[in-house]
């Protein structure tokens, strides 16, 4: 048995004894679905100036922002499908173990995998809203033959994500802080843990007495400090191992 396998067994045992489990997920969980992270090596900001993600830039030149940044994101989200990490978290919900997913991602893959209670901290690219009349359009039906894409009323569509310069919806922040303070286990999956205020959620959980289980490919500021223990590896593989071990524990004898 490898060290990672033994930690997966430990995580499964901890989950089997828990009463309230929450997951915090970041870009690392969707990399295995073909969606690159925004920050770090191979990230979007290595190729595109992050100024294009600022709300002022969008207001000043929506056509340019759609051409440089948003058109490519639409293509990525359209093609992406849930991977074993998303599916594993959805399975944990089906098993009655995981209650809520707090995600920093905007790809909608958790819901596609079957998770039903997802707090999208930074909004969603799965839907777009007309800036004039408020009509909504699913990402898959958005017409990009004309940029920026427009509503029937003539208004410009924007994705329902949080641009730089915009506030995270207060109800998302308040609910995330509440469930973080009430859970007994927080799974932290594929996040660099440097973007605030999302990175504060594991700290809140830890301070409230929760076990923080980190699943990442490399160490983060949480590792060895806030995390109770860390399982280093690909999110899909690690979560699949944990779910398999948990199902063995929960199987009627």
Could you describe the 3D structure shown?
Strand 7, helix 7 and strand 8 (211-216) form a beta-alpha-beta unit. The protein folds into 2 domains: 1-35 and 81-122 and 168-253, 3-Layer(aba) Sandwich (Rossmann fold); 42-79 and 124-161, SIR2/SIRT2 'Small Domain', CATH 3.30.1600.10. It contains 8 helices and 9 strands. The chain starts with a helix and ends with a helix. Helix 1 (3-16) packs across helix 8 (235-250), helix 4 runs parallel beside helix 8 and helix 6 packs parallel to helix 7 (200-207). It has a 6-stranded parallel β-sheet, with helices on both faces. A 3-stranded antiparallel β-sheet has the order 5-4-6, with helices on one face. Helix content is 36%, strand content 18%. With 253 residues, it is an alpha/beta fold.
The string of secondary-structure elements, in order, is HEHHHEHEEEEHEHEEH
Shape: elongated
Query: Would you tell me the overall average pLDDT?
Result: 92
Name given to the CATH architecture of the largest domain: 3-Layer(aba) Sandwich
DSSP summary, beta strand count: 9
The major pleated sheet works out as:
6 strands, parallel
**CATH class descriptor name of the largest domain:** Alpha Beta
Named CATH topology of the largest domain: Rossmann fold
Report strand %: 15-25%
Helix content: 25-40%
Strand order of the largest sheet: 3-2-1-7-8-9
> How many helical elements?
8
Uncertain stretches: none
Looking at CATH, the homologous superfamily of the largest domain is TPP-binding domain
Structural class: alpha/beta
């Amino acid at each position: 048995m490898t060290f990672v396998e033994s930690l997966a067994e430990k995580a499964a045992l901890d989950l089997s004894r828990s009463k309230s489990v929450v997951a915090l997920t970041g870009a690392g969980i969707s990399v295995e679905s073909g969606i690159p992270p925004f920050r770090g090596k191979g990230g979007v900001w290595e190729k595109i100036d992050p100024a294009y993600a600022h709300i002022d830039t969008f207001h000043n030149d929506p056509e340019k922002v759609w051409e440089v940044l948003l058109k490519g994101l639409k293509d990525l989200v359209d093609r992406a499908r849930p991977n074993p990490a998303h599916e594993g978290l959805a399975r944990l919900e089906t098993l009655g173990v995981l209650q809520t997913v707090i995600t920093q991602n905007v790809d909608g893959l958790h819901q596609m995998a079957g998770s039903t209670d997802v707090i999208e901290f930074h909004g969603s690219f799965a839907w777009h809203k007309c800036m004039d009349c408020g009509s909504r359009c699913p990402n898959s039906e958005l017409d990009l033959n004309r940029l920026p894409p427009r509503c029937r009323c003539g208004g410009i569509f924007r994705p329902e994500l949080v641009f730089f310069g915009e506030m995270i919806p207060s109800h998302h922040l308040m609910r995330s802080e509440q469930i973080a303070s009430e859970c007994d286990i927080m799974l932290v999956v594929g996040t660099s843990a440097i973007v605030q205020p999302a990175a504060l959620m594991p700290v809140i959980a830890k301070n409230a007495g929760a076990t923080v289980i980190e699943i990442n490919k490399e160490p983060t500021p949480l590792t060895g400090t806030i995390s109770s223990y860390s399982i280093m590896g690909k999110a899909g593989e690690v979560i699949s191992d944990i779910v398999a071990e948990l199902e063995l524990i929960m199987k009627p004898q």
